[in-house]
Write a structure and sequence with these properties.
The protein is globular, with a radius of gyration of 13 Å. The two termini are 23 Å apart. The mean pLDDT is 89. It contains 7 helices and no strands. 37% of the residues are buried. By secondary structure, it is mostly helical. The chain has helices spanning 6-15, 18-31, 36-44, 50-57, 59-66, 74-88, 100-116. Helices cover 69% and strands 0% of the residues.
């Protein structure tokens, strides 16, 4: 399965445990507000679909979600920590629809980069 649109990804996220995903992404947004790819990796981390998001969200998100980054990679460490912390954290992380624009931004950036390669 490969996701071809943000809409397909949103449907997949809605079908899963999206409260955990929202908290993970929100924690990453607090720590790294400018790093949209890291935040998006946190949002999709728990769906277990690294290969599915690769064509839509790009190599970096794919590597982070799949766990290829390695043990000394700061971003991979932040992602794992945020995912763990989000299991017990209790705060209002918003709703999935709040993330549509960020997903569209990352997907559009990946699409432009893919067109250049």
């Amino acid at each position: 399965m490969q996701l071809r649109s943000v809409e397909e990804l949103m449907e997949l996220l809605y079908a899963g445990r999206h409260q955990h995903a929202l908290r993970t992404a929100a924690l990453l947004r607090r720590g790294r507000p400018a790093d949209k790819e890291l935040q998006v990796a946190g949002l999709v981390y728990g769906i277990g679909a690294a290969e599915a998001v690769r064509p839509l969200l790009g190599e970096r998100v794919f590597r982070l979600v799949r766990g290829d980054a390695g043990p000394v990679d700061d971003d991979a460490l932040r992602l794992r920590q945020a995912a763990e912390e989000s299991r017990t954290a209790r705060f209002d992380a918003g709703v999935l629809e709040d993330w549509r624009t960020v997903l569209e931004l990352v997907a559009a950036r990946n699409s432009r980069l893919g067109a250049v390669d």
